[in-house]
């Protein structure tokens, strides 16, 4: 009987080890996770609560490995909007998106500068001549989140004043100055 009990104990220990190893192998690996941006319902300024606690609470409901719920939170946004950046699997992101308090969940994207030399970008040769009289009334609009007026690419040497029809303004904040090339900012 003692031999049967010992054999049964060994079998139980091996079964538990097998289940534990299987569980660890089946957990999503970090390379299976992508960064997602999560927008939530708007903040209520009259309520006092911790957005980070709410964000972690949501993650604990959807992240498969509870130990990594707090580790998956990259950043909580608390000032301009209620949301957070997190690393999730696709399945976890879909589960999170189905929550009532979640407005949207989408993969984070990284954008790279396409050019710093407009001449090359629009296909003009390096020997092309600039004709201010012909080209002076053209406004090219660019939406950019990081404009540095002190950059050489925004130098206005040789540019005349903005066209008279221009109705924009230069409100780029302190230490931000527009010129005859960079004619507007907000």
TrEMBL record:
The keyword Signal applies. GO terms for biological process: proteolysis. InterPro entries: Peptidase_S8/S53_dom_sf, S8pro/Inhibitor_I9, S8pro/Inhibitor_I9_sf, SBT. Gene3D superfamilies: Peptidase S8 propeptide/proteinase inhibitor I9, Peptidase S8/S53 domain. One of its GO terms (molecular function) is serine-type endopeptidase activity. Keywords: Glycoprotein, Hydrolase, Membrane, Protease, Serine protease, Signal, Transmembrane, Transmembrane helix. The chain crosses the membrane at residues 6-27. The keyword Transmembrane applies. Belongs to the peptidase S8 family. This is Subtilisin-like protease SBT4.6. It comes from Punica granatum.
């Amino acid at each position: 009987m003692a031999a049967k009990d010992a054999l049964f104990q060994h079998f139980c220990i091996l079964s538990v080890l097998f289940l534990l190893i299987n569980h660890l192998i089946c957990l999503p690996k970090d390379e299976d996770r992508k960064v997602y941006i999560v927008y939530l319902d708007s903040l209520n300024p009259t309520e006092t609560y911790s957005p980070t606690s709410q964000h972690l609470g949501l993650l604990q409901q959807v992240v498969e490995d509870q130990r990594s719920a707090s580790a998956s939170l990259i950043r909580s946004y608390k000032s301009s909007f209620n949301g957070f950046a997190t690393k999730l699997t696709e399945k976890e992101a879909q589960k999170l998106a189905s929550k009532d308090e979640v407005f949207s969940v989408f993969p984070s994207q990284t954008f790279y500068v396409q050019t710093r030399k407009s001449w090359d970008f629009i296909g003009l040769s390096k020997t092309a001549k600039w004709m201010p009289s012909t080209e002076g009334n053209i406004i090219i609009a660019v939406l950019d989140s990081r404009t540095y007026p002190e950059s050489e690419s925004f130098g206005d040497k040789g540019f005349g004043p903005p066209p008279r029809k221009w109705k924009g303004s230069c409100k780029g904040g302190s230490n931000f100055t527009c010129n005859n090339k960079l004619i507007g900012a907000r």
